[in-house]
TrEMBL record:
This is Signal peptidase. InterPro entries: ClpP/crotonase-like_dom_sf, Pept_S49_SppA, Peptidase_S49, S49_SppA_C. GO terms for biological process: proteolysis. NCBIfam families: SppA_dom. It comes from Pseudodesulfovibrio indicus. The keyword Protease applies.
């Protein structure tokens, strides 16, 4: 068989099975510089810490062409530790721009923010930017105040389990996979064969269980009416105006409004400093700079970060998958 016919399905297999495929690094350089504090707004006494949470939420480090970057979970925890240790910091603004991510990463972020509040007694304001959906919204739930930009998309309170199927493609190119297993369900979810009705039921049970946890946390933190919660459970997304009307957020505004609310909740003066934590110094720094350090290469699919539509490993995700499902 010609190589050009065999190569595409083999490449697809490597992309779809990251847990089994070898990890290839061109350079092993790591982002090892410590985080340092930089002032991005205000000149008064006291501080509000600005922490960015963006991209696909995972506990895995971001693999670049030139180096690896810490995962979003690791970076948030690092920044929270600095904010907690600084007695001048009265509160935190978490700027969220994320469609969500893995169920575990989203839940860890929720846990870490809640623990930070409990340990430190410091206030947390969540400020949503372009998208704060699914796991991005999950991570905002511990906040004392949730603010969305006028054009934010949020919601998508639910779970998705994407499992691409290659069986049709493999039939066309004459490729097969033999599987030996210890139990009948050991390879459930395999991309190499159709899913059985029994497996569909098992998957749905897992999805329902994970969704129930998400729903319980929304109810515990937002106190929605039964009618509004029923709408939220459809897992649809909402505009900022819709989210405020249904009770998912507290305010519509801009990042400066989030700073003002955090200063108010922390009992700080109106011009208290806003600090952020970065590895590199940037000229003319400001709150909209989301870089902690020089960015690694990230794979793109038609100009879109490929991690948004191709999660780094198989699993159940609190993520809003835009325009790629039927």
């Amino acid at each position: 068989m010609p190589l050009k016919r065999i190569l595409p399905p083999l490449v697809a297999l490597l992309l779809l099975l990251p847990g089994c495929a070898p990890k290839i690094k061109i350079f092993a350089s790591q982002a090892t510089e410590p985080l340092k504090e930089y002032v991005v707004d205000g000149k008064g006494e006291g501080k509000i810490a600005l922490i960015h949470l963006r991209g696909f939420l995972t506990t895995q480090p971001n693999q670049g062409m030139l180096r690896s970057q810490p995962s979003p979970v690791q970076e948030l925890v690092n920044a929270l530790k600095l904010a907690e240790a600084d007695d001048e910091v009265g509160g935190v603004v978490v700027a969220i721009d994320s469609p969500g991510g893995t169920a575990t990463a989203s839940d860890v972020l929720y846990h870490e923010l809640l623990d930070f509040k409990t340990r430190s007694g410091k206030k947390v304001v969540a400020a949503m930017f372009d998208v704060a959906a699914s796991g991005g919204y999950y991570a905002a739930l511990p906040a004392d105040w949730i603010l969305a930009h006028p054009t934010t998309i949020t919601g998508s309170v639910g779970v998705v389990f994407m499992r691409p199927k290659l069986s049709g493609l493999m039939d066309k190119v004459g490729v097969d996979v033999e599987v030996s297993k210890s139990g009948k369900d050991k390879d459930m979810g395999s991309p190499f064969r159709p899913t059985t009705p029994e497996e569909e039921a098992l998957f749905q049970g897992i999805i329902d269980d994970l969704a129930a946890r998400f729903h319980e946390l929304v109810m515990a933190n937002r106190k929605l009416t039964e009618e509004n919660m029923a709408t939220v459970k459809t897992a649809r997304v909402f505009t900022a105006n819709q989210a405020k009307a249904i009770g998912l957020i507290d305010q519509i505004g801009y990042v400066q409004d989030a700073f003002a609310k955090a200063r108010e909740l922390a009992g700080l003066e109106e011009d208290a400093k806003v600090v952020t934590y970065r590895r590199d110094l940037y000229p003319d720094d400001n709150p909209y700079n989301t870089l902690d350090s020089a960015e690694p290469f990230r794979p793109t699919l038609l100009g879109v970060d490929a991690r948004y539509v191709m999660p780094p490993s198989a699993g159940f995700c609190y993520v809003w998958v835009r325009g790629v499902t039927r």
